Amino acid sequence: MKLAVPALVISVAVAAAVLAFAWPFDSPARANEVGYLTEVDLRVEESNPGENFAGRGLWTGGSASNRKESYLRFRLGAVGEGVRSAKLRVYAYDGTADAPAVFETADGWSEYGTTWSNRPRVVGPEIDDAGAVASGSWVEYDVSAVVDGGGTYSFSLRSGSANLAKFDAWEGHHQPELVVALGDDPVLVGAGDMASGENDSVEGTADLLDNIAGTVFTVGDNVYESGSTEDFANYYEPTWGRHRARTKPSPGNHEYVGGDPQQFGAGYFEYFGAVAAEDAGGYYSYDLGGWHVISLNTGHCYGDPEADGSLPRCGPGDPMIDWLERDLAANEARCTLAYFHHPRWSSGVEHGNDPASAGAIWDALYAGGVEVAVSGHDHSYERFAPQDAEGNRDEGGGVRQFVVGTGGRSLRGFGEIEENSEVRSSAVYGVIKFTLKPRGYEWEFVPVEDEGFTDAGSDSCH
Predict the structure, then answer these.
(1) How far apart are CA 230 and CA 1, in angstroms?
(2) What is the pLDDT of residue 262?
């Protein structure tokens, strides 16, 4: 299985060269939709019947005895109350007057073992046909007839025309996606400080995700100790990696540990691919239902400034802060949630408040009218009352901080309790689930089985 497959996309609107695929640039916000990126995709060619063309674009068409077909597979987890509609979206970087049709195929094929000679068989009739498509445009196929719930879905793009059409595969700038419209309010679920080789608690939180529909987010320190490619393969992939296709991640300091400073974060960006927005600094935003959601990169606040003085420091004037202020201004009318690794406010004994990494972020969030901020770093759960830029309680316009470093790595206690801390636990692994309402939100801390503690509530948007 490829390690760099990117993760979930959900009706994204990003102002910079972020997430160079699908909704970040050219699709409107869509309520109650979840986008799954391909688990595997490839093309095969009749003139090379024994050769595999994975990683070299998805092509269709061609003359007799030189036909080209492409195959895509998506794995959907829990989908809540069911699927209202589903669209397969692919990006044509070389258009045609006669685009391919889409068919459902049998499962059980592999990305690098599939050739023209052993390609999967078609199941059922043509599902949809696109007609003419222009270069540099998205093509949408309505596949609602076959996508009716969770599970694995495989598709083939094939054309009766000799005209070639060329689409981006997962390695390209615009990865294919399966966009599923659900019947429920959008759900955002996640945690931070997850996978390592030192204990198996991450299995419990990954199991929780198996039964919770919606978008998975991470608040950094996804894997220990160094966030290397090997760590992701050995510890993250078998657990939270099961949900990679619907995950919108953020990095922590352990993704930026050790090695050449110019390579900091390399394992994280390789594993998650374009969804992690490496070219844009590792921060991005997207729309989920009526909400605007922001993923920030406080992992890059770390490093040796003498070794590389160009590393950002997350303070005023930092490119990420400038981008954040612009992004908030462009979405000021929306309910907004932001997540990042280092908490501005925390009672955790190990780290506590982190104004150096998150102070300028918090100032921008408060000025921009943001409702919710979620972080990790301290390995505990803590919920704060809404606060202003100085940490004063502000029920009418403050930002509510959640610290959810309970993903599985370890648990730690509390030191001096911060004034506006409302609920705390340092004894339970789990995830936090947000249900995003049109003008408010509900939260629920979901513990691993039999661990008892939970926390739930609701609030309105400003």
Answers:
(1) 14
(2) 52
Which distant-in-sequence residues (6+ apart) come within 8 Å of 293 by Cβ?
A: 10, 188, 217, 248, 285, 286, 287, 336, 337, 338, 339
Task: Using the structure block, give the residue that is written with the tokens 């790595």.
Answer: 409
Among 116, 107, 189, CA closest to 154 = 107
pLDDT of residue 31: 53
What CATH number is given for 33-181 in this structure? 2.60.120
Residue 365, CA distances (Å) to 14, 288, 331, 370 in order: 17, 18, 12, 5
Q: What residue type is 132 in one-letter code?
A: A
> What is the distance between the alpha carbons of residues 355 and 219, in angstroms, rounded to a whole number?
17
Strand residue runs (E) in 376-439: 381-384, 400-404, 421-425, 430-437
Which tokens hold the place of 193? 């400080």
- Distance in angstroms (rounded) separating the CA atoms of residues 203 and 105: 32
Separation CA 91–CA 321 (nearest Å):
31
Q: Quick one: residue 314, left, alpha or beta (phi over 0 = left, psi -120 to 50 = alpha)?
A: left
What residue type is 390 in one-letter code? Answer: E
Whether 184-460 and 33-181 are alike in CATH topology: the answer is: no
CB-count burial class (<10 Å; 0-12, 13-18, 19+) for 306: exposed
Using DSSP, state whether 204 is helix, strand or coil.
helix
- The residue extents of the domains of the chain are 33-181, 184-460
Q: Is the pLDDT confidence value at 307 over 70?
A: no
What is the side-by-side order of every strand in the sheet holding 440-447?
247-248, 215-218, 187-191, 430-437, 440-447, 455-460
pLDDT tens for 237-263 read 999 999 998 899 999 999 987 555 556
Count the neighbouring beta carbons within 10 Å of the beta carbon of residue 91.
24
In CATH terms, 184-460 corresponds, of 3.60.60.10, 3.60.21.10, 3.20.170.40, 3.40.50.1100, to 3.60.21.10
Residue 137, number of CB atoms within 10 A of its CB: 11
DSSP 233: I
> What CA–CA distance (Å, rounded) separates 103 from 121?
10
pLDDT of residue 263: 62
Distances (CA, A) of 435 to 8, 441, 458: 17, 6, 9
Q: What contacts 50, CB < 8 A, 6 or more positions away?
A: 115, 116, 117
- Burial of 351-362, coded b for 16+ CB within 10 Å and e otherwise, reads bbbbeebbbbbb
326-374 pLDDT tens trace:
999 999 888 999 999 999 999 999 999 999 889 999 999 999 999 999 9
Beta bridge partners of 287: 292
